[in-house]
Write a structure and sequence with these properties.
single chain, about 35% strand, alpha+beta, about 20% helix, 6-stranded antiparallel sheet, 6-stranded mixed sheet
Length: about 325
């Protein structure tokens, strides 16, 4: 017989152990840990932070959870644009140097752009590049302003002087709605508000919906914590609400306080006051004839005039700016 024939072959050893022995069962892999709930949350980090106020605006009757308004005074380092960075990447044929004849400030003027007016029509525009900001201005408003073409050497001197004189700190006021938010979520402003986390240098943190100070008043009115006439009775508060937030305020007597633009400049107008313009003029307002129609305006730099008007014609309701 042929050698090797008829013999039983030994079984192959298992892959993970020795011959004839099975290895220990392998545990299933652990799932990765869930990501933190606040991953991707935008932080508001300040070099200096002060809590200037804290107010409870709602307490849940079932759980006792509170909703608070926390006011902050934030201070961050000012970011300025050096000359070389301002000029970097710009076509020399597309910009010019300018100095403001009133303030003496410097700016780079980039031409050949467009913007939209109040009727959403395209109009020629320029971009003003300043040491701290960039703004898009209609060409007509720019030509009627105090900006004047300047020599580069004079422009560089003014730009450098402005950076040297600037306050190294930027101060900002912020209000955060914290705590139990779901019951009042629909009362919070829809625009320019988002969930933010405020971080203090000492490690303290607050999480909630960030508001501008001007948005606190409509929120309190929506929650029934106060009435419109009381909150909007001060001229400074009313002017900020109308000019900065774009809201319109209904007054008694069928009058409206609203923001309008005349010659591309914002104004406070009292709509429906032309029949009583003599009375409003005596209170400190001024009247202009525009398109053969007399219109009554409140001086922006005299809040006491608006306070007197609101005392005689109290505010009834606030109409937020359309989205």
């Amino acid at each position: 017989p042929t050698p090797g024939r008829g013999r039983a072959r030994p079984p192959h050893p298992p892959a993970g152990g020795g011959a004839g022995r099975a290895g220990p069962p392998r545990a299933p892999p652990r799932p990765p840990p869930p990501p933190p709930l606040d991953r991707g949350m935008e932080d508001i980090v300040a070099d200096d932070l002060e809590v200037t106020g804290e107010e409870v605006i709602r307490t849940d009757v079932a759980t006792g959870a509170e909703t608070k308004l926390v006011s902050f005074q934030l201070r961050t380092r000012r970011s300025v644009l050096p000359i070389e960075q301002a000029l970097n990447g710009l076509d020399p044929a597309a910009y010019s140097f300018a100095i403001n004849g009133k303030s003496g400030r410097a700016a780079l003027v980039v031409r050949g752009l467009t913007a939209t007016d109040d009727e959403d029509r395209l109009v020629p525009a320029v971009r003003l590049i300043r040491p701290e900001a960039r703004t898009l201005t209609p060409l007509k408003a720019f030509e009627e302003s105090a900006w004047e073409t300047a020599d580069e050497a004079v422009w560089r001197q003014a730009w450098t002087a402005e950076i040297a004189e600037a306050d190294p700190w930027v101060r900002r006021q912020l209000v955060l709605v914290t705590g139990l938010l779901l019951p009042i979520w629909t009362s919070l402003p829809d625009k320019r508000t988002s969930v933010r986390r405020v971080r203090a240098p000492d490690g303290r943190r607050w999480l909630g919906r960030a508001l501008d100070p001007a948005q606190v008043t409509p929120l309190k009115i929506a929650l029934g914590l106060t009435d419109t006439a009381t909150v909007v009775g001060d001229g400074t508060v009313a002017a900020r609400l109308v000019l900065d937030e774009g809201a319109s305020v209904a007054l008694t007597g069928g009058l409206w306080l609203r923001r309008t633009k005349v010659m591309d400049r914002p104004r406070l107008e009292i709509v429906g006051a032309s029949a009583q313009r003599t009375l409003f003029t005596a209170m400190g307002c001024f009247v202009e004839i525009i398109a053969y129609t007399p219109r009554v305006f409140v001086p922006i730099d005299r809040p006491q005039v608006l306070t007197a008007i609101l005392a005689k014609w109290p505010a009834q309701s606030i109409l937020p700016k359309a989205a």
